[in-house]
Amino acid sequence: MVVTDASRALLVVVSLLVLAGCASTPREQASRDADAPYFARELPGLPGGWDPMMSPVDNPILEARRLDNPPPALVKQALLAQHERWAGTPYRLGGSGFGGVDCSALVQNVFAETFRVTLPRTTGEQVRQGRAVERDELAPGDLVFFRPPGVYDHVGIYLGEGRFLHASSSRGVMISELDNHYWRRHFWQARRTLEPTRLAQRLLDSGDA
Question: Domain check: are 78 and 50 in the same one?
Answer without folding.
Answer: no
